[in-house]
What does this fold into?
Amino acid sequence: MPRDLPLGNGSMQINFDTNYNVRDIFWPHVGRENQTEGDICHTGVWVQDGEDGHADFAWFDDSSWQRDLHYQAETMVTEVILINQRLGLKIVCHDTIDFDRDIFFRRFDVTNLGNRPKEVRLFLHYDWHIYGEAVGDTVYYDPHQDNINPGNFMIAYKGQRYFLMNGLVGNKYGIDSWACGVKEVGGAQGTWRDAEDGHLQRAPIAQGSVDCTIALYIEDLQANDCETIYHWLIAGKTHEEVMGDDSIVRERQPQSFIDRTANYWKLWANKTAVAWDDIPANLSDLYKRSLLIMRTQLDRHGAVIASTDYDILAFARDSYAYMWPRDAALVIYAFDEAGFQDPARALFSLIHDIITPHGYLLHKYNADGALGSSWHPWADSQGHAQLPIQEDETALIIYAMWHHYEKYHDLEFIAKFYRRVVRAAGDFMVKYREPHTKLPEASYDLWEERRGIMAFTVGAVWAGLNAAANFCYIFGDVDAATEMRNAANEIKAACVEHMYDQERGTFLRMVNVDQQGNVSKDYTMDSSIVGLFKFGMFDPNDNLTTSTMKVMRDKLSIPTDVGGMARYEDDYYQRVSHDVTGNPWYICNLWIAQYQIATAQKMDDLKPALDIMDWVCKHSLPSSVLAEQINPYTGAPLSVSPLTWSHAEYVITMLHYLAKQQQFKLAERLGDAVQMKASTPSGPVVDLDSKMMV
It folds into this structure.
């Protein structure tokens, strides 16, 4: 189920699904240690009429609720509206994770829609898998009484992972009822079932595979009145740490943390001024929301996580909760373009620690920098050694690093990574080439499905070598720079010779070269061929590029009402129907938009790119989350959501669009100014600066 509302602060990261269930609780790293393993943490309400005593109950994922899931504008605070006519309730919910402390806050404004008073009980359930496994966990009720700030709460713990659950109703701190229990053992579903009659059994402790449910009561909610319930979950490594943070919350009031976090993210989202001009509001809103959603997937120690949607486990028994260096490089590129340089600085510091001494990066990594799971073998089927890498991942990190330097010129910072990262990676890319053609040696493709010499990888390596050469010139390694530049030139020439098919008028997605130098060709049209122009190897207006892009759009366009572009011909991954060549992927559509922007010669030429961005916006979730791909018939999200890369490509596309639009407007204004000056030779000089857009 899609993760409609991700929240995060760099160490705690929480996802809500489409039904407004808490699903993933990552801590202390984003994407590392899912403390619920993606299982549902239920929330629901029990209501009893104050006059006739009739009682009813509904979990938030019950079909009786109308749900509207959004964020507050420009913040990482949710705004969820729940209406249940059967219960006679409206609940407006605001959820956030404090920007500084690892505390998850929830506010519920409960309105009685009926004409009689009600008693309302809110139940919050947590399905614990501490350290990512439901073994040896403990959860217990703590009747703690503090003389200054009295209140009782629940604590779940194992090892150095502690989670404290507390609440506030009116002026009363603490929980009103509780249940500790065992789940996934002997058919037990969990303590959440205990809540459905409105009463919890109050077992004080449980150990093993455990869960817990707490209750917070509004004892007398008058007709048409509204009362507020607060709940918070605190994460820490010791009992003393979570107790200390709980005291601070009670001292400062939970609303103050929600307010300060909303203010923080509004300032963050508007850090860099953007001249939106005539851009539709829904598209500019998606730009800011994309930056915020991308931020939820960043770990405080530098890792950029591909996606924290854990439901993908059901498909492959592994997740996207890793850092692929390629995805990370392109996400960081987007952040840098948008004026946020801190994510790049954190990522490059992590890359410095994890890159191999030989100058290449491996398949993927955990948020803490440890090597992630992989299906890339260290030997082929004959037992011959091979590197288990996707070479574009190494190349694009160097490409992103040069882009960062061009943007910010922070020489002293970059200098720390020159020898171990830039020079080592550049030397590796020079040497790691197929000897007969001089193309990059075979590696695994960006789609993680095949091994060969991919067009995308070729474009990335060319860009990475040129970026490394640029750095070498800066740091005085002229011989190394020359060697890298020559290698890049050889790769480009070899690409034209071996990877362009004159008869079809397209570049090939992949070639392979045997030990005798014989080249075998893969003619499948693949959207990733855009890497040859996206990273600068070929001019977008080059005949080789334009002919390729025409064929690409013809072959990969999806002829349904949803429309869009497929990833490649006969794409099998998450395929919905054989009647279409594949599912629409956001990144593939945005690559087409980037190409249209790059080739635009006048303002009207930009409209097709704007239409694609509008298509992306219209097919996002109501919360503006972008998945990896969507159903070609219904537009429903498929695979993981959010996919960080999808949001990054939207940001890149929008910024490229705005830059090109400003170029055209500036040219028009300069032309007007020249014409005005020529027609009024005796008049005042036109102030061109006043006509330039900032």
